[in-house]
Design goal:
The protein is α+β, with helices and mostly antiparallel strands. It contains five helices and five strands; from the N terminus they run H-H-E-H-E-E-H-E-E-H. It binds iron/sulfur cluster (SF4) (2 copies). The site of one iron/sulfur cluster has 13 residues, from helix 3.
Length: 160
């Protein structure tokens, strides 16, 4: 009886779609790097990944212009992925140190940080330009800064 149950399960399994995600290629390429180079040259296409679920925490984007320089993200970041730039009173995010916890996004009072759906982030150079976020342009959810606020924040503190 047990053998029959086992055979039934095996047969069913044979006709099911694989549970694993066939990504980035349907069949394992001899070299993943050469395959990705060919993708970049648009010679081949990536086999699509699974649908990204809502609330996915991928690469961070940063709206530098509307950032008020409050440093809350810098203080809350558990991995020191956020660096404070005192001269400019802005931040930058080093993605190779980020653990994608989204605490910085949650704490930002003006929504100038957001997580995207981008997840292909491996690189030989952990400080490659695309992995150090300096300015991603205006984000749809950012609270825009008034010009007067921006000028006040950028003034150096008065000497006593
Ligand atoms: S997502 Fe988490 S680890 Fe990454 S920069 Fe924000 S606070 Fe730091
Ligand atoms: S990104 Fe947000 S939390 Fe971080 S310094 Fe700018 S305004 Fe403050």
């Amino acid at each position: 009886m047990k053998m029959f149950e086992a055979a039934k399960t095996i047969l069913k399994q044979l006709f099911r779609k694989p549970a694993t995600n066939i990504f980035p290629a349907k069949y394992a390429p001899a070299s993943t790097l050469s395959f990705l180079d060919r993708v970049a040259r648009q010679e081949v296409k990536l086999h699509p990944p699974v649908t990204i679920p809502p609330g996915f925490r991928g690469k961070i984007v940063y709206d530098r212009e509307n950032c008020t320089g409050c440093q809350q993200c810098y203080r809350v970041c558990p991995t020191q992925a956020i660096e404070w730039l005192p001269e400019e009173k802005k931040i930058r995010v080093v993605i190779s140190r980020c653990c994608f916890c989204a605490q910085c996004v949650d704490v930002c009072p003006v929504n100038t940080l957001a997580m995207t759906e981008e997840f292909l982030l491996s690189s030989y150079d952990k400080y490659a330009d695309e992995l150090v976020i300096i300015d991603s342009g205006e984000l749809p959810g950012s609270k825009k800064r008034k010009k007067s606020d921006a000028t006040a924040a950028e003034k150096p503190p008065e000497q006593s």
